[in-house]
Amino acid sequence: MGKRKKASKPQGPRRKEPLPTVFTCLFCNHERSVAVKLDKKAGVGQLDCKVCGQKFQCGINYLSAAVDVYSEWVDAADAVAHNGEGDPEREPGAGRLSVGRPGASKGKADVYDDDDDRGYDGEGVVADDDDYD
What we know:
By secondary structure, this protein is of the alpha+beta class. The chain has a domain at 19-85: N-terminal domain of TfIIb (Single Sheet), CATH 2.20.25.190. The protein has helices spanning 66-83, 108-111; strands at 22-23, 34-39, 44-49, 55-59. The relative contact order is 0.10. Its main location: nucleus. It comes from Lasiosphaeris hirsuta.
């Protein structure tokens, strides 16, 4: 005869790993040199590199974490490098990318200004004279 199996003891809850607040700098490539500070009352996230002095600031909400500020910095730096524009910190809407075609106007009034380009001219459309019963 065999022994009875003992019920396994319940394990405690797993400890959650905290999200990082120190990152690698995009410009000087030093590891653990970029520190992120969140001011949730003011709604501002600040990022600062200890080595090269690079700074970034963006708006946050109550759900934001340090990783979110770092990812916005990466996106803003990529957008500036891709578009060749000025400093994203000094532009309105820093850290926010607009969606749409480049050079497209935003107003609806500008879209339909030319009536000639507005639709199908009807070339090749023939009226149907036959009656179908």
